[in-house]
Amino acid sequence: MAGAKAKSRWTDERLDKMRKQGDVLLDKKVEAEFRRGDIDAVNSIMQSLVKNDQPVPEDLPVGIREYLAQSSSLPEWADSAKIKRGQQIFETWGVLITLCLFCASLPSAYAAANGVKVLYLTAQLDTNTRRRVMETGQFLMDVLAVGGLDDDGKGRRTIQRVRLMHSAVRNLVKARNKEKPGLWDAKEWGTPINQEDLAGTLLSFSYVVVEPMPRLGVRLSDEDVDAYLHVWNVIGHLLGLSDEMLVHDSSDATALVNAIRRRQFRASPEGQEMAAALIKLLDELTPFHRFDDTIPPMIRHLIGDEAADMLLVPKSKLTDELNLVDSVTKLIYVHLFGQSERNLPRYQRMSRLALPFGRNLLHGIFRLERGGERARFEMPDHLARDWELST
Fold this sequence. Notes:
By secondary structure, the chain is mainly alpha-helical. It has one domain (1-391). The chain has helices spanning 6-9, 12-18, 27-36, 39-48, 62-70, 80-111, 115-123, 125-144, 154-179, 186-189, 195-206, 222-238, 250-264, 269-285, 291-303, 305-310, 317-336, 345-367, 381-386; strands spanning 369-370, 373-374. It is globular, with a radius of gyration of 21 Å.
């Protein structure tokens, strides 16, 4: 999947068309199950499917059995060497990647005013934050640990469950909108979890190696960036993202990110509520770090003050002080003497904070309780050791 005309193909015409499209393979099959009232049974069965080599239950509806068979294989263009290399990048930098997920990827997704509508309607992050955080973190572990996308890996079945959930959400929103007209404005927002929003969400996960990670002092080689984007292209394909919406390289990814930001980044009450709920949980998960010195400054550092302001991410004394010092330092050292912005105090402070803060966050996820009981969070033993975590 080489070669791209990154700045020429992400037109409004193309992306407007993609906002009308859902999942061609699955949506009609799930719609049929909705009509029969079998969707609860499907969801229950899917929860028990954990490996791709596990037999599909005979009592599963025919349409869903067809979906599982049709969506279980990697695309022909998948490169096993790149997949492994991309997963090794996650295993090497997973603590910082996880930090970027919660302090950059999710906030960025909430800043997309149209895409956040369906997240707000269905996820109800303000009341189910713990479950959503656990599911998101577990998804990363399942698909990005080395071997996770192999024939017997957890990743493929996890992706199938998420894709099934996405289709169920599309059909559920459609059904509820008939009962309560005006709940979903298809003309303004497009199809729920449409191709543009799915691509944007996938980019918020994969783009960490292009934009947020360098802000923490981690700069990967072009080959590593290409491999990591490739892994997420494979995941996107398995999730039902059209191949024409997959990015070719970092330049193409940047072009699509910029197009979506131009089209969607603006303040919205849904995005602000979800960001507030996320920030509250991050504070609960990292009790050993002072709130004003960590979470708001980290989010603002990773996504930028403009997007953070849209989400009403709190400003702090530390943020204001670092911005003032950075402005003076940038004027003197960057513009006059040509030094790198990596030498700015804000970059250095956040880079030093990132690793211990990320470990503290992962410890918090391990301790996460749901309904009075410790929620199960599975991580390969070697990752827990390598990342210096105690499970």
